[in-house]
Amino acid sequence: VCYFAILKKQIKDCVEKKVIAHLVKKTMHIMVEELISSLDTLKNSRELLEGDDEDIKRKRQLQHELKDLRQALNKVQIALTESRTLSKEIFKKKKHDDNESDEEKKKKHDYNESDEDIRT
């Protein structure tokens, strides 16, 4: 029965790790797509600025696009920080859970030894 409990806990930990890894991977993929899009827009904006300095309206539009790009990059940085924080919290929780399970195993072992002493 003890082996099944340990196996069940290991499966649960593995599933949690896979879910977290999937979420982090998906978040990173979205951030990379946003960065690529932002870089393409920035490249296009630079080309337009260099080609037509007299069009003030277009310059303003490009400035707004650059501002939007900066905001998008800030959001990406925030999401990355949050995912790192989440990963750290999960690692700490996992470590704490592992320590608790080690203590439970020790208690069971001590209990089994005391049973053997009583029998003899």
From TrEMBL:
Residues 91-120 are annotated as: Disordered. It holds the Pfam family GED. Residues 32-79 form a coiled coil. InterPro entries: GED, GED_dom. The keyword Coiled coil applies. Residues 1-84 form the GED domain. Keywords: Coiled coil. The keyword Nucleotide-binding does not apply. One of its GO terms (molecular function) is GTPase activity. This is GED domain-containing protein. It comes from Euplotes harpa.
